Amino acid sequence: MDILLVASAFNSLSQRTYVELSDRGHRVDVVLASHGDEMVRAAVREGTPDLVIAPMLKTALPEDVWQEHTCLIVHPGPPGDRGPASLDWAIATGATRWGVTVLQAEADMDAGDIWASAPFRVPTVGKSDLYRGEASDAAMTAILLAVERYAEGRYKPLRQSDMSVPVIWRDALRQKQRRIDWQADDTVTVLRKLRGADSQPGVLDELLGEELFLHGGHPEDVLRGRPGELLATRNGAICRATRDGAVWITELHPRRGSGDPAPFRRPAADVLADRLQHLPEAPAPLELSGGRNTWTDIRYRQRGHVGFLEFRFPGGAMSTGQCRRLLDAYHYALARPTSVLVLGGGRDFFSNGIHLNVIEAAADPARASWENLNAMDDLVEAVLRTTDRMVVSALGGNAAAGGVMLALAADEVWCRAGAVLNPHYRRMGLYGSEFWTYSLPRRVGARIAARLTEQALPVSADSAVGLGLVDRVVPASPTAFAPMVERLATSLAGSPGLRERISAKHAAREREEARRPLAEYRREELSRMRRIFFDPDAPYHTLRSAFVRKLLSGSPRPLAPAPALP
Description:
Helices cover 38% and strands 20% of the residues. The protein is an alpha/beta fold. The strands form six sheets. Strands 2-1-3-4-6-7 form a six-stranded mixed β-sheet, with helices on both faces. Helix 1 (12-23) crosses helix 6. The mean pLDDT is 96.
């Protein structure tokens, strides 16, 4: 069928809907509703779609569109649930099971006939992680079923007036309901409020006399203090005491109009800067002893001959400091007696490359971009030059730009089913680095590498296997992914012929280095990137600022050809 996706943003679910429908042979186009109703109407007129699907929509579809075409809305709540903050309420009420419903657009919000629904379990994670994980899996199950039913032409959607549908309206969750009472709320309550507002809109609070939105909540089992007191920092996060414990808060977001020149999410310690000089920097344990329950963004553990270097950075972005710390941890892992080293392996994002928010907030964004990119290159090069063991990249979630190239530096790439890869840079006005001119053609060939980087479109995990971009798709839920990766890695470490594979890998690296040194790839890529970074008129600077500040930019048709680079 010809299917038009209408979305407020080409976000993770919109991209996943696009790639999975395309994989099944449908002709899919996308228009962003954030650019106005006329853009949506024009896309409908031009494409004459058989079906319109809205995987993520913050505004209503134009009435003439849903009256003249079948339009299916993806609602992140179970059948009968209505309102604009469904996942927020699921976390706020401590629900253990929730659902996604695909319903037909009509005048009343979320009141249309039900074409399909799918349930999911609600783990103890942040809202954004839940949205990209269990909710996304359920959404795709429901979307594909609804599309199949529509195509068959015999299915009669269930009216919400049916007695089997328990209709419940839930208003938006206001900041007064999210507000943390540091004197009265226990740690469990504080964490639930923080997780329910992650990543949007954050929990509005006051810190050191300033109103800020708090993002990210993780328990701390040792540090203690007066309720509400700031106790320590650790790798950009801040630890704050609760009534009966403490929590780590990873990011802060200054209110718009606060006078802060960078009113967007950044590492908490960066936002508060010199006001935290009195706080100690709590050591970040790389290997956690048994029973510890604290936050670190990088962890190493070992099971037999397999090392696991897990890292999880908010939003998948990796700042200069985070890249350098991960490189230090990688060198630590290489000093351990293992034959297989797994990178990643956790839930949610693997990596999205350089940290645009930190760069945008820097006094000299061009210099910050350059330093961040070089730190990413150092990390990727270390992986590429590892020849004494097998390295596996395990992607539990999405990856983009330099994050994809970090994954491709490994010997094998394992990807959770449902993950989406964006192996390109062009839509941010960048040529790219992280040895993509070496790793990508080595994987998929020069022709496909050119197509992936020039068309700049997302790729599903299944398609990535077909292209040679990924070696294995792991059919697991977000929670089950890490245990399954551990079993697979253990099997790899015990497989016959592993030593021969490692020896062959070492020899191949020496041959490739003799043919063309990695330093040459890096030098040519960085030469192109340096010209972009230090050109004040390069589109990268405008695109980065708009992306970070969530301003309307770019084409209302995200599948349009990517712009040419200078």
